[in-house]
Amino acid sequence: MLQTIKALAKEYAPEFVEIRRHLHANPELSYKEFKTSEFIQAKLWEWGIPFEVKAGTGVVGLIEGKNPEKKLIALRADTDALPITEENDVPYRSQNEGVMHACGHDVHTSCLLGAAKILAELKDEWEGSVRLIFQPGEEKNPGGASLLIKEGVLENPKPGAIFGLHVHPSLEAGKLSFKEGKVMASADELYFTIKGKGGHAASPHLTVDPILIASNLVVALQQVISRRKNPQQSSVLSITAFNSGNTTNVIPNAAKLKGTFRAMDEAWRFEAHELIKTISHNLVEAMGGELDLLIDIGYPSVYNNETLTDIARVKAIEFAGAENVGETEIRMGAEDFGYYTQLIPGCFYRLGVQKQGTLVRNVHTPTFDVDENCIELGMGVMAWLGASVEM
C-alpha cells in the first residue's frame, strides 16, 4: 500500500498544485472562508466522500476503509488567510486585495484534499476510518479548533489520534521535521489602560502622568520573565503597542498598552497571568493612577504525544527516507491545534517548502511563497499516516 500511495501522490500532484494555486489566488479571512468552504465541499462531493459543515465554514468529512470501527484517525488542515497585501508577481497572486495566504494554509488544505482523494480511492486496502477536518479561523481568536470541538468534531466517536502539518519556510521542499512533547507556545493578548490626570506639560506636579506610569510598567513587567520564570522554561512577554497623547504641551489623561504573553507550560502560563495582574495594579496604584487590565486568553500550547510522534516519524521515514526526516525546533509562535492536543493524542509536524538555493520567504510576510514540489510529499505522507497508523 505504501508504494501505491506514493505512486498516486506523484500522479495526482499536478492536480493539487493547481488546487493550491486556486486557493492562493482566492484567499479569505478567518471565519469568512465561504467560497473556500464551498470549493472543499465540491471536491469531497466529487470524490464520493460524505461531509458535514460545522462552525460556519468548517468542513468535516469521513472516509471509511475496511473494518471502519477498528480505529479512527483525524487529519486536520486550516483554511483561512491573513490581512496582508501580496507582493509576489506570480500568475496565482491573490485576487482579493489586502488578503493573502501568507501562512501556507492553501498548502495545508491542498495536502489534505490530496490525501482525501488517495484514501477514498484506496478505501478497500486499509482498515479503520479517517476524519477529515478542514478548519476555519486558525489565525484569529477564539480559534476555529475551539469552535469545532464545541460542535463535537472530536466525539461520536472520539479519534484515537490527530495529525496536522505546517509549512516550514527554512526547510527544503522534500523534507519533513518532527518533535515530541512541547512544540509551540500558548498565546494570550494583554490590554492595559492606565488612567491618570492630564494637564499642562509645564506643570507636571499638578498631574498624574499616565505616560510615565506606563513607561515604568513596560519595564517592570519584564521581571515576570527575567526573575519569576524558571530559566528552563521558554516564555515571552512583549509589549507591542504604546498609545497616548497627541501634542507636545499636554499631558494626557490616559495611556494604553498592548502586548502578548507566551508560554510552553500551561501551569506557568496561568501563574504568570496572576503575576502580571499583581505587578501592574500595584505599580499603577502606587504612582497614583488607575488600571484597567484585560488578559484575553488565547490558544493553549501545542503538545505532541510522544508515542504518536515516534510512530509518525517512523512512518515518514518509510515514505520519504531517513535522510529527509529531521528534528524540528521549539517555536514560540502559537497554533490552535493545541486545543486538539489537550483532548486526544496529537502530532503537529513540519513540511519543508523552501526552494533549494533561494532566500527563505518567511510566513506572515507579503512575499511568502513555496516550492510547490512540497505538495506531493505533503499529501502522500498525510494519506500514509491516515491509512497506516494504529492507535
Highlighted features:
2 domains, 10 helices, eight-stranded mixed sheet, Aminopeptidase, four-stranded antiparallel sheet, 391 residues, Alpha-Beta Plaits, alpha/beta, elongated
What's the domain count? Answer: 2
CATH topology tier name of the largest domain: Aminopeptidase
What best-fitting shape do the alpha-carbon axes yield? Answer: elongated
Q: Give the radius of gyration.
A: 24 Å
Give a brief rundown of this model.
The chain has 391 residues and is of the alpha/beta class. The chain is 34% helix and 25% strand. It has 2 domains: 272 residues, Aminopeptidase, CATH 3.40.630; 109 residues, Alpha-Beta Plaits (2-Layer Sandwich), CATH 3.30.70.360.
Task: Write a structural description.
- With 391 residues, the chain is an alpha/beta fold.
- The protein folds into two domains: 2-185 and 301-388, 3-Layer(aba) Sandwich (Aminopeptidase); 188-296, Alpha-Beta Plaits (2-Layer Sandwich), CATH 3.30.70.
- 34% of the residues lie in helices and 25% in strands.
- It contains ten helices and 16 strands.
- The chain has helices spanning 2-25, 34-46, 105-121, 144-150, 210-220, 223-226, 266-286, 306-320, 337-341, 374-388, and strands at residues 51-54, 58-64, 72-78, 129-135, 161-172, 176-178, 181-184, 188-195, 199-200, 235-243, 250-251, 254-263, 290-296, 302-304, 325-327, 346-354.
- Strands 1-2-4-3-5-16-6-15 form an eight-stranded mixed sheet, with helices on both faces. It has a four-stranded antiparallel sheet with strand order 10-12-8-13, covered by helices on one side. A two-stranded antiparallel ribbon has the order 7-14.
- Strand 1 (51-54) and strand 2 form a beta hairpin.
- Helix 1 packs antiparallel against helix 3, helix 1 crosses helix 10 and helix 3 crosses helix 10 (374-388).
- The two termini are 19 Å apart.
- The model has no long low-confidence stretch (mean pLDDT 97).
